[in-house]
Specification:
Layout lengths: L6 E4 L23 E7 L6 E6 L12 E3 L7 E3 L2 H5 L13 H11 L3 E4 L5
Parallel strand pairs: 1-6
Antiparallel strand pairs: 1-5, 2-3, 4-6
């Protein structure tokens, strides 16, 4: 849809509470955009964590929207992304910091991050 070989569709998943009808259909027409970062953790043990803005009805519709960050929880791309931007073997904690590392390294070699058109 983006016509971009270097596109990565990525986001944080929406809370399932109140999001699915009894028939299994989505009740949301919103889009989460990752656009905030803050420190989290105890003093001396802080780490950066991405946050998403409150979900709202997308102003750009019919296509994904570019966003500044990569999310580990939901990420789809061409296979060359994981080859060109692998997890950092020297990172001390795989779950805290991988989003920053992969996001920065991917962006600096030309990957673009997009939020899906609707909440996942």
């Amino acid at each position: 849809m983006t016509q971009n070989e270097m596109a990565v569709l990525t986001s944080y998943l929406t809370d399932v509470q109140g999001s699915i009808s009894p028939e299994g259909h989505s009740l949301r027409n919103t889009r989460p955009i990752m656009c905030n970062t803050d420190y989290e953790g105890n003093p001396g043990e802080e780490h950066l964590r991405h946050l998403s803005q409150p979900e709202s009805v997308p102003h750009i519709d019919g296509m994904p929207q570019m966003e500044p960050y990569w999310a580990a929880g939901y990420s789809f791309s061409r296979g060359h992304f994981v080859v060109n931007v692998p997890y950092d073997l020297y990172q001390p904690m795989i779950f805290q910091g991988e989003e920053m590392s992969i996001g920065i390294r991917g962006w600096t070699i030309g990957y673009d991050y997009y939020a899906p058109e609707r909440s996942v």
